[in-house]
What does this fold into?
Amino acid sequence: MLEGQGGNIGLSVGEDGILMIDSQFGHLTPKILEKIKQLSDKDITFLANTHHHGDHTGGNGNIAKLGAHIIAHDNVHKNIKASKKQTVDHLPVITFNDKLNIHFNYETVLVFHVKNAHTNGDAMYYFTESNVLHTGDTYFNGRYPYIDLNSGGSVDGYINAIKDALIVIDEDTKIIPGHGSLSNKTEYLTFLNMLKSLKTNIQTEIDLGKTEEDVVANTSITKTFDDLNYGCCYITPEKIRRTFYRSLKN
It folds into this structure.
């Protein structure tokens, strides 16, 4: 796992070469490659994306020029192709609809799409022998998540994505979140319970006829988790209340 300015990168290093999950921002590629060279002198054979956002795919073109084949969900291809900020160099060349198996470095990597979670094109990568799960941005460890409603994300889909992942992991699984430090099942469940609590709280407000601005202004809704510093980063308490309201109201 490599941490940096963008989403967390996962690496499988072995005799077959390197399988890289996500590429962060393009300007970081030289530093990322320098770090990878400290781990292995093998080539990057595959670059697999968890979704289309630039902090996870910005380096795609740079890595592709080295000969790597980019893998992602069908909707990642569509979203990058439609983006004004990204070029054809960022596009995956291998896409899938629902599930995919990658047999690499003496283990099977289970790849599965989770619907309308962080975006409409999220994929998780589970390394069956290493017992490692890369969640992409369907998990922000210790902080409020960004749920991209404009790209097909939803509160219910986000919660269901975690439930799907819990089927394949166990107490010993190492979890690489999209953002935040290396995690485990216990922390993952804590994150899920936070989401479920917020959903209950905000759905109650909606059922009482409260408006979006009422919910955004009501700090008591998220206070328990605000006090635990979940609003530390990109998504503030106000933003998470607004996102939940808009997703659950539709």
Q: What stands out?
A: The radius of gyration is 18 Å.
